[in-house]
Request: fold
Amino acid sequence: MSPVMRTRRDGSTRPARHRAVQPLAVAWLLVVWLALWGDVTPMLLVGGVLVAVLVCLTFPLPPIDLGSSVRVLPLLGVVARFHLDVVRASVQVAGVVLRRRPVRNAVVAVDLETTSDFLMTLVASMLSLIPGSVVVEARRSTHTLYLHVLDVPDAAAAEEFRRTALALEQRLLRALPPRPTAPEAR
Amino acid sequence: MSWTVVADLAAAVCILLGALLALVAAIGVVRMPDLLSRMHAATKPQVLGTVLVMTGVALRLREPGVVGVLVLIVLLQMATSVVSSHMVGRASFRAGQVRRDLLVVDELSDGPAHEEPRGAP
Reply:
């Protein structure tokens, strides 16, 4: 998603400024602050809000555009399946580490269906957290992820991994279906 | 047997399993042939290991305030290990620090040369 453009008075365009202090970010930072203190007092609440606003002003970030609706049940399914995958793949990687045979790897390109930056980031993070795959390159223009996959004996296994990665994206798309008015349409 | 004994036992099992995974990660860092394979061993079993150790600590201490901090540790560990493994992997690939003889398929180097349009990261 390219930045929203504003037109200046002389007709030239510039990227629109976004507000640095976002309520959600402040709320999250406040929760972290309170968790670190391990206590809730009025003084800590005021101090936490102050620190959160200061952090948001010092390190401004663009707002996250979810751009999709949320279906709770499929989302819970995705989370459960993700935990299962992490445990299974951890055991697998441990096996690869401990066995004698040398390991063969592969760099696999996965062309994602989604055009949303947010979903692409989510898929990339989930694939990275599942042991055995690391994102080495992400191309935003073509929505392609390049993943380094551990323990791929032949090309068929690489193909197999591509299918599991695309299946993960499909599950995520079912849990977070994009809204019809995509921000890319602007 | 009271539930505290059961919780203590579960905590012990969790911490032991977590420590075992951390050990496997350490062995992997030594044994793996190249940087990218080492990244797999160093970042992933270790995340599950951290989760298990934190679960064990939560089961042993049984205090709500502590559990909040432990959940925070796990969340931050997951968020940062993804970014760091991607950055190190990407830097090593761009710098050519890859054992190509170990790769069965390499679709990043073999694909057609690609010029990323301006404005893309």
